[in-house]
Design brief:
The chain is of the alpha+beta class. It has two domains: about 230 residues, 3-Layer(aba) Sandwich (Rossmann fold), CATH 3.40.50; about 110 residues, Nucleic acid-binding proteins (OB fold (Dihydrolipoamide Acetyltransferase, E2P), Beta Barrel), CATH 2.40.50.140. The structure holds adenosine-5'-diphosphate and magnesium ion.
Length: about 350
């Protein structure tokens, strides 16, 4: 097991910068998920930790030792890819034992390592099969088994479930989580899927444009997103945003002495005072679809564009001041919502962002 420290790490391909200085301290045994849209630099960072990409600037340390110039094989790290990268001509057992055989590990030791990994992954009955005789999920398990038998200091996963169908992804996600609870190995997991990030991570690292936007537990990112990017990226359906101006005192209307955000139609939505905002500063109000309340005498009126039953709940697609706005509710009465609904925004669920898009508290 190992801690992994990433300090001011930068990466450029030629003159094209891809990572702009990443700082991250990963504790021994932690499960870290790097999440962000395609192209934000997740794989690049992972591959630098593995030693598959050169580091343009900064330092990477594994268990306190600088590894910038260490060959991948000397880093004692195992990587699991989206493409399972199994040897087609080898059996499952031989695929799993390949790295140990290369290292001339004793036969009994190999057998016991493969046996125990196969048991953990439910691969016992498949050990003699070739990869082509396995399903996608089974192949992904073999790729994980191959990583486990090496007992590496850390596991790196690059979108390992992206080739699987939704149901299998859900199942493998739970298995990976159980496996981590069992092995307690330091793990870094890359995905563009925010649900995978939320469900698997001890801590999430949200990335955008080669810059770390926020690091925290899943619920920290969900409940107190640091900026508009994280607020919009984490959660589905995504957070609603309304632009306005921050007002205090008399201008806050219904809020009386309090504060509020004045929307384009003049409505003032009361919010708790935000020390970081100047009166009349441009601000964005955020509220998650599940926090919007439908109420007969609600503060704002919205047009109903579309009613989407998901079975579990209902998504109402609305237009509010001409902009798209969503509500998620478990109340089936919403299925018969009229052409308009009135809505309220409970104060404790409101997020406020400043003109630069950063959270204002
Ligand atoms: N070998 C390369 N040469 C030039 N540009 C690259 C190379 N690999 C990745 N990039 C660029 O670096 C950026 C980040 O890529 P990547 O780390 O693969 O993103 P992600 O894994 O988050 O989707 C992208 O803009 C991509 O086009
Ligand atoms: Mg990638």
């Amino acid at each position: 097991m190992a801690s992994i420290d990433i300090e001011s790490v930068r990466k450029s391909y030629g003159s094209f910068p891809v990572l702009h200085g990443v700082d991250l301290e990963i504790k021994d045994g932690e499960f870290i998920v790097l999440v962000g849209p395609s192209g934000c630099g997740k794989s690049t960072l992972l591959r630098m930790i593995a030693g598959l990409e050169e580091v343009t600037g900064g330092e990477i340390r594994i268990s306190g030792n600088r590894v910038n110039d260490l060959a991948p094989k000397d880093r004692d790290i195992a990587m699991v890819f989206q493409s399972y990268a199994l040897y087609p001509h080898m059996s499952v057992a031989d695929n799993m034992s390949y790295s140990l055989r290369l290292r001339k590990t004793a036969k009994e030791k190999i057998a016991s390592a493969v046996g125990s990994a196969a048991k953990k992954l439910g691969l016992d009955p498949l050990l003699e099969r070739r990869p082509k005789a396995l399903s996608g999920g089974q192949r992904q398990r073999v790729a994980m088994g191959r990583a486990i038998v090496r007992q590496p200091k850390a596991f790196l996963f690059d979108e390992p479930l992206s080739n699987l169908d939704a149901r299998l992804r859900e199942q493998m996600r739970a298995e990976i989580k159980k496996l981590h609870a069992d092995l307690k190995a330091t793990s870094i997991y890359v995905t563009h899927d925010q649900i995978e990030a939320m469900t698997l991570a001890d801590r999430i690292v949200a990335m955008h444009g080669g810059i770390v936007q926020q690091v925290g537990t899943p619920l920290e990112l969900y409940d107190t997103p640091a900026n508009l990017f994280v607020a919009g990226f984490i959660g589905s359906p995504g957070m609603n945003f309304l632009e306005g101006r921050y007002v205090v005192g008399g201008g806050a209307g219904a809020a009386g002495e309090g504060a509020g955000i004045r929307l384009s139609d003049g409505t003032v939505v009361p919010v708790a005072p935000r020390a970081g905002l100047a009166p009349d500063a441009a601000a964005t109000l955020g509220i998650r679809p599940e926090h919007v309340v439908i109420a007969e005498n609600g503060m704002l009126e919205a047009g109903v564009d579309l009613v989407e039953p998901t079975g579990f709940g209902i998504i109402l697609h609305l237009s509010l001041h001409g902009l798209p706005f969503k509500i998620f509710t478990l109340d089936r009465d919403a299925l018969s919502a009229g052409p308009t609904v009135r809505v309220d925004f409970p104060q404790k669920h409101l997020h406020v962002f400043d003109e630069a898009g950063n959270r204002a508290d």
